[in-house]
Amino acid sequence: MHAAETRLSREVITRLIGAAILAPSPHNSQPWIFRVRGRCIGVIADRTRALPANDPDDRELASSCGCALFNMRVAAAHAGLGTRVHGPSAACDPDCLARLEVLPDTTPDATLAALHGTLAQRRTYRRTFAARPVAVAALDALVAAAAGEQAWLHVLRGDSQRRLAAELIAEGDDTQWADPAWRRELAAWMHPRRRGDGLVLPGLAVPLAQAVVRTFDIGHGVAARDVQLAAASPVLAVLGTRGDDPASRAEAGQALQRILLTACRHGLQASFLNQPIEVAPLRMRLLQAIAQTGYPQMLLRLGHPEIDLPATPRRPLDEVIEFVPDSPRDAGC
Ligand SMILES: Cc1cc2nc3c(=O)[nH]c(=O)nc-3n(C[C@H](O)[C@H](O)[C@H](O)COP(=O)(O)O)c2cc1C
């Protein structure tokens, strides 16, 4: 793409949105649409893919879109293109969370470009991590990654903070599993790999697994396992933001993805223990436990993976891209 061009080439669009869809999302719901107009790509919340029981305010949905936006910034920088992120404006589609403007005549961010190799390596790693500590330099890089996106990452230190967090995780598991609507929603997102989204199970196992999840409250067992996982995690950390409006939530997503990709660069993977943030009454108790101000957005566990996991599936690009003709009157989204 040359500076004088006002449209993104097919190649650039495919590179950027191909990177975007590698982002994580709760239940692998992939709740995004990318609206291409001129030199901009709008990140649109696809609320038909919302999770009303797990995420009633679409908070995690907005953060997932923020993760996808961050991946596009990385892919653009790697392709030698500068970018600028525009927040939503009053004139925009209310589901448009942000727009990425590609600026070929500005210098790309070398720090972002250096993360490109990790885009396809990142996994949500729900297993026990290797019993190796995480280096202080890696932890410092994760904290700096959050700060670089106007967010904070609080690493839980000492037994008492970690124990309090584990208690809240267990309470969150109990609450979520006791709710039949939450279990039904989880069951509905258990899919065979060929579907291209959702939590992947072997095709033959799907009906039985769905029936078990729909029918039985196994919260106690899940809580016991999560407490063990938390206790054995080399790092537990809370990502938070100053605000909690949709723009802050999208920022939280950009910070999350910057942390996850930076973690990968240091040989680490992560997974989520978000229950004490998803269950509203527990969220402020978590904040008090870590003595921070603002809004917790994610509770992460991080460490060195013991095995390589296969990538989870994604929907094809043509299902998530919309092209909008340029109109001189309306340069928004
Ligand atoms: C905002 C957000 C919240 C998530 N919450 C959870 C969670 O509570 N528990 C969990 O196991 N995974 C959680 N995930 C991870 C997704 O399940 C995972 O991203 C998805 O299955 C795709 O897999 P991948 O990350 O390996 O690509 C979350 C991801 C995002 C972005």
List the helices and strands and how they pair.
Blueprint: H1 10-20, E1 32-37, E2 40-45, H2 59-78, E3 82-86, E4 96-103, H3 110-113, H4 136-147, E5 151-155, H5 158-177, H6 180-188, E6 190-191, E7 199-200, H7 206-215, H8 219-231, E8 235-241, H9 246-265, E9 269-272, H10 275-278, H11 280-290, E10 295-303, E11 321-323
Parallel strand pairs: 1-11, 6-7
Antiparallel strand pairs: 1-2, 2-4, 3-4, 5-8, 8-10, 9-10
The chain binds flavin mononucleotide.
Which properties best describe this structure?
2 domains; 333 residues; 11 helices; single chain; NADH Oxidase
CATH topology of the largest domain, by name, is NADH Oxidase
- Please tally the helical runs, counting DSSP H or I stretches of 4 or more residues: 11
Provide the gyration radius in Å.
Answer: 20 Å
Overall 3D shape = globular
Spans of at least 5 consecutive residues with low confidence = none
Strand order of the largest sheet: 3-4-2-1-11
State the gist of this model.
This protein is α+β, with helices and mostly antiparallel strands. The chain contains 11 helices and 11 strands. It folds into 2 domains: 10-120 and 312-323, NADH Oxidase, CATH 3.40.109; 136-178 and 217-303, NADH Oxidase.
Describe the fold and architecture.
It is a single chain. The chain is globular, with a radius of gyration of 20 Å. A hairpin with a 2-residue loop joins strand 1 and strand 2 (40-45). It folds into two domains: 10-120 and 312-323, NADH Oxidase (3-Layer(aba) Sandwich), CATH 3.40.109; 136-178 and 217-303, NADH Oxidase, CATH 3.40.109. Helix 4 packs antiparallel against helix 9 (246-265), helix 5 (158-177) runs antiparallel to helix 8 (219-231) and helix 6 runs antiparallel to helix 7 (206-215). Helices cover 40% and strands 17% of the residues. It contains eleven helices and eleven strands. The longest helix has 20 residues, at 59-78. The protein is an alpha+beta fold. Flavin mononucleotide binds at residues 24-28, 60, 63-64, 67, 123-124, 126, 199, 271-272, 274, 312.
